[in-house]
Fold:
Amino acid sequence: MKITGISTLDHAPQVVAEWLNLLCEDLDWVDTARAYQLLRETLHALRDYLPSDEAADLSAQLPLLVRGIYFEGWNPAKTPVHPRGKADFIDRVAARFPDRTPEEVEEGVVAVFDLLRRKVSAGEINQVANALRKSLRDLWT
Structure:
């Protein structure tokens, strides 16, 4: 659908819908609103666990609206957050999913990481993974 005549802007909602649909498929979910919440919370946690230069590098490879979701509310002066272990990361995302077990939340985080691995260059994913603690790095495999 042509709204602005600027293809990047007109296509952006379709790209987000594609990402959410892929997450729903990967997790066997039907609720795209829940998939959006998972994507948003995981992207925010990831962004805040990375050094600010690496967070910015990752953003350069994200589609327009996904990049907006990623940067929403970011305060680079407060990153990277501490502590930054796997349990802290999962707990942070799990705060938005009180009806899910930590194992289910971890499965969701792994699905988002897998989606990023499919959509972002391998070189950038390696840089992101290597900027994280080993326990979190293991979730990328």
The mean pLDDT is 93. The chain is about 65% helix and 0% strand. Residues 7-140 form a domain with the Globin-like fold (CATH 1.10.490.110). Residues 94 and 101 are 8 Å apart (CA to CA).
